[in-house]
Amino acid sequence: MIILRDIELRRGAKLLLQDAQLTIQPGQNLALIGANGSGKSSLFALLLGELGADTGEIEGMNNLRLSHMAQEVHATALPAGEYVWRGDEQLSRLMDRLAALEEQGDYELTAPIHTELESIDGYSAARKAEVLLQGLGFGENAANRPVSDFSGGWRIRLNLARALMTPSDMLLLDEPTNHLDLDATLWLQQWLQQYPGTLLMISHDRDFIDGTCERILHIERQQLGSYKGNYSQFEAQRAERLANQQATFEKQQRRISEIDDFVRRFRYKATKAKQAQSRLKELERMQTVAPAHIDSPFDFSFLPPEKSSDPLLRLDKAALGYADQAILNGVDMQLRPGSRYGLLGRNGAGKSTLLKSLVGQLPLVGGQISAGEHCNIGYFDQQQLEALDMEASPMLHIQRLSPEAREQEVLNFLGGFDFRGDAASSPVAPFSGGEKARLALAMVVWQKPNLLVLDEPTNHLDLEMRHAMEVALQAFEGALILVSHDRHMLRNTVEELLLVHDGQVEEYKQDLEGYEKWILSSFRADKPAEQASEAGDSSRKEKRQQAAAQRERIRPLKKQLDKTEAEMTKIENSLAALQERLGDADIYSEARKNELAELLRQEGEFKSRADALEETWLELQEEIEQVQALAVD
């Protein structure tokens, strides 16, 4: 049992927790929630011994085996599988000792090490690591690839696998689903349900919390509250408590009235589709829990687009992919005002390829795409965060989109995304991932799109911002196509589901719950450790065919990557030569001012081209990793 008594915790001058009391029973699964910056990660650091409390005491941490998910992985040549199983320190120490003795030829001394390895099931560690990697979306050969081969998001998955591999009495996970797709999220949920130790988890994914946790810890106004039940039950309790506070009553009633009106309108147009009916149930549920979010700092909506077309965008027998190699074939899609699609499918199946093709980032391999005259696309993916100007403020980002906009209008708009006071006028560079994501989304909303294309928009967003986004999307009158591992977001905002698999995009006729059951049943049916060696000749033949198909997908991507790298080198050499000329003091003389102006213009063009090539390179590299990560089961 872990007991926190009278804890006061500060970060610098900022008070995070005051007089915090908490008792954690062995084997409990707890979710720690609260606004970004409220102190959740600091409480983790306190439990890990990385921070000390200003006052108070903690009992029960001595001799407790802790495992936690690190947020960074440095490049290493270690194979991914070995990196994962080395999370088990005892196993790692024994394997190193065994290797050293065998190298020295001291085979008599290796016998007790072999005995100890057998006692901790050490010889199956490599296979356990592979199972973890495959469950989290890695391909079956990923265990042999060096960690340095993987990009940042995949390295975070490696850290998660390593934390799960580590024998522990208590597991601390900080936003474990942030870099997972829906299938991997469902696999992790099932794994955590079977974890025998104590789980403490920071998460902003309410369905994931509901599926794994039995108690909610909520940090609010420097207080640590404890609530029995999952997140949905916590939300209902909080709604009832806030509803009794007279100060917020009128605002609550206004919000409930708005949702009532929306439910009435939607009920009459909802189709018979299962997902549409699921969405109606969610809207009705929101009527009862609206007060729980009435003190949210977020309040924004999509303004009606000035013009629209019908259809907004359509694909006809489209082949989508890179260069001349199609990943998806025969895609027919029509996006009309009011269309609401959620995309399902395994990692690497082609969901992001479809979205990039819709927004024009990827040319079609075949077929036709046609956009309506007044189609205005709002696109969000994680690369939008990297495209932000780190030296510019949120206000300047919006003003660049609309130079004619009044300053107060911009400030009022940004306030709805909780950029107020100095936060609206400060450079973006020190912002957290959540703040950058909010700004990128604000830029999408500001431009009044009539077609929203959203690729994992909830990464880094806290629960209140996710709720505000759901509310805004519910009232959005344009077309929406969404990829998200957040099931609550999908259930609340889309009416039709599309399954991307085997090179096709098909209507998924069940609802999201049906998809969850299908995926979870496939996990239960799959027993890799026992069945891997039992696969027959037909299975091996199928795997060889799939591997060949995978190589065919990767070949044009790598060809395009090589071409991009060659062009990057050419641009870099040209830029270096130009900058050498700019280093000549004579170029700045009055007589050569025209020549200087031309050189500076060329420098700007080269830099712009270099940035575009780098973005293309990153997209290609990510696509290659997704194809390589596609597990062949």
Topology:
Layout: E1 2-11, E2 14-24, E3 29-34, H1 40-47, E4 55-59, E5 66-68, H2 80-85, H3 89-104, H4 110-119, H5 125-135, H6 152-165, E6 170-174, H7 182-193, E7 198-202, H8 206-212, E8 215-220, E9 223-228, H9 231-243, H10 249-269, H11 274-289, E10 313-322, E11 325-335, E12 340-344, H12 351-358, E13 366-371, E14 377-380, H13 383-386, H14 394-401, H15 407-415, H16 422-425, H17 433-446, E15 451-455, H18 463-475, E16 479-483, H19 487-493, E17 496-501, E18 504-508, H20 512-525, H21 528-531, H22 537-582, H23 593-629
Parallel strand pairs: 3-7, 3-8, 5-6, 6-7, 12-16, 12-17, 14-15, 15-16
Antiparallel strand pairs: 1-2, 1-4, 8-9, 10-11, 10-13, 17-18
Helix pairs in contact: 3-4, 5-6, 7-20, 10-11, 14-15, 14-17, 22-23
List the domain count as a whole number.
4
Derived from helix and strand composition plus strand pairing, the structural class reads alpha/beta
Number of helices: 23
The CATH class of the largest domain, by name, is: Alpha Beta
User: Uncertain spans, ≥5 residues at pLDDT below 50?
Assistant: 528-541
- Largest beta-sheet details: 6 strands, mixed
Mean pLDDT: 84
Task: Let me know the CATH homologous superfamily of the largest domain.
Answer: P-loop containing nucleotide triphosphate hydrolases
